[in-house]
Amino acid sequence: MNSSSITPIITLEDARAEAEPWPTQRPLACPPPPTLDLEKAIPPGLAPFREFCAAVAQGLQVPPDAVPPLALALASIGTARALEVELSPQWRETVNLWVCVLMDSAQKKSAILNLLKRPLQEWQKRKHAYLAHPLAAYDEKRNGLTSQLASKRDKQKSATGHDLTKAQDEAREIRAKLENMPELFTPSLIADDITPEGLRRDLVINGEKVAFVTAESDADQLLGKRYGSGAPNLNLILKTKGGDSATTSRASGLRCHLEGPLTCAALIVQMTAVKEVLRDPYANGRGLVARYLLLALAHPSDFVENVKPAQVPPHLLDWWDTHFRRLLDLPWPGSVILTADGPARCEQGPRVLRLTPEADELFTDLRIELNRRKKEDGDLYDIREFVAKFAGEVARIAAILHALQADEGELIPAETMRAACAWAPFLLEHYKNALGEAAEGDDMKLARRLLAHVKRKQLAELDDRDALRLFPHDSKLTMEELKPALDLLIDYDWLRKLPDPPKNPGRPLSQGYAVNPAALA
Q1: Helix or strand or coil: residue 513?
Q2: How far is residue 44's CA from residue 22's CA, in Å, rounded to a whole number?
Q3: Which of 4, 111, 254, 437 has its CA 20 to 30 A from that of 276?
């Protein structure tokens, strides 16, 4: 018989697909945010920084977009309180960043931070060594005055007349000297605990700035909960983003006044660690979440790890070390410096950066666009609280990029502002994605994993048991837990139920599903 005369077998699903064409499937998640174009986001004068970020990502085999924002957040430890950027006569921004990168487990989060923060750790060691002897002599002199004051107070108890007056005068002189000799400490700019008590102490020690740098965090730390009470305490934390003055009382009764405290944050944690914060109505109502630059990153599905990647070239590590430590050396009010008379608090105010007319025009265009897009009919309306602060974040990025170029000038040029503005679409979309990930349930995540397995194996049909077998390493997964994920795939038109098969007395029925051909294309 001629093979061309054979009638092809038409399955029930084929007939149904012809009679009822598949609808267009809906995506199971937001489209991936754009990647950061380093050619545009790093100004020409910072070509070594661009090469450094790319080399770190390649050397550690991590998502390329994780490195630049964390590097800028760490660099802002140097610019915080040392620099400000003036955007109008009534508008100045501090130059510090709060960056939180969200990544899955086993993605070398600690390795990224350890490499990037190494110059800061070395700077602190050298600073401690440099100040150790002068501070020891300073403390000895201060302790001597404290002892003298105690002695004069003892004399006042039994003295009378002229002797009492003399003892009181001498005590006043000693107190005046002590008031000009506050307690001084070598800086310890990194903290991994952000409870209000610890934060206040570190701010006092460091001249009112500290950085929260960690690859391990949880909701309690980010919400400022303490003493196991479960009560969030965000007051001081929130003030340290913009440098608002804060006066707090301690348990001892002493009052502590902070003139312009600033914190920086370079966090790289798992989504599960901060999901509670992103959903927390108190954190959102107080504006904590909207102060962070959030990035939800993951390896692409087709990522193949190079087990022997090229190491970061030494000259690029040296560049980062030199320029990062140069920023850390910038004087800031309250930092401990050595004068001709010994250690003292720096009284120099922050250096003020301004925009050139061309840079100001670019910045104004960005603000106009943001204002348009955050209106009720705009695509950024749902994150309008974040967008309201976002122009200031772009200005901070511009100031950090300017400072990294070793340019002592006070004017930020157009090319640097243009680079900072190139971060905008990247950061805005990542913020939306991060909030979407936080709101997403476990069923949706499981549905996405199931669909990925179906695509990889090119399955045109499967049943319940087939679906469960696609997760061989998840022995605890049950059909009851998998069923909602299958239902979601049906709702989103990736699957549809097949007719029930004939009953088999010896085996329970297993629901069959047809796969949308679009998943196999």
Answers
A1: strand
A2: 50
A3: 111
pLDDT tens sequence across 180-195: 888 899 999 998 766 7
Distance CA 196, CA 192 (A): 12
Q: Residue 228's pLDDT is what?
A: 41
Contact in structure between 424 and 41 (CB atoms under 8 Å): no
Residues in the chain: 521
Whole-angstrom distance, CA of residue 509 vs CA of residue 279 = 40
Rounded to whole angstroms, the Cα distance separating 392 from 61 reads 32
The DSSP annotation for 60-118 comes to HT--GGGHHHHHHHHHHHHHTTTEEEEEETTEEEE---EEEEE--TTS-HHHHHHHHHH
**What 3-state DSSP class applies to 45?**
helix
28 contacts 451 by C-beta, under 8 angstroms: yes
Burial class (CB in 10 A: 0-12, 13-18, 19+), 230: exposed
Q: pLDDT, tens digit, for every residue of 280-296?
A: 777 777 888 899 999 98
Sequence letter at residue 318 = D
| CA–CA distance, 316 with 314 (Å, rounded to integer) | 5
- Give the pLDDT score at 416: 97
Backbone angles phi, psi at 152, to 5 degrees: -65, -35
pLDDT tens-digit readout, 359-386:
999 999 999 999 999 998 888 998 999 9
Res. 303: pLDDT tops 80: no
Q: Which residue has the tokens 């560049």?
A: 319
Long-range contacts of the stretch 149-153 (C-beta < 8 A, 24+): 149/174, 149/175, 149/178
Q: What span, in angstroms and rounded, lies between the C-alpha atoms of 187 and 363? A: 35
- CA dihedral (223, 227, 229, 234) positive or negative: negative
At which residue do the structure tokens 């749902």 appear? 382
The residue with tokens 């590097």 is 71
CA distance 131 to 342: 10
Contact 450, 466 (CB under 8 A): no
Angle between helices 314-328 and 67-79 (to 10 degrees): 30
> Does the pLDDT value for residue 249 go beyond 70?
no
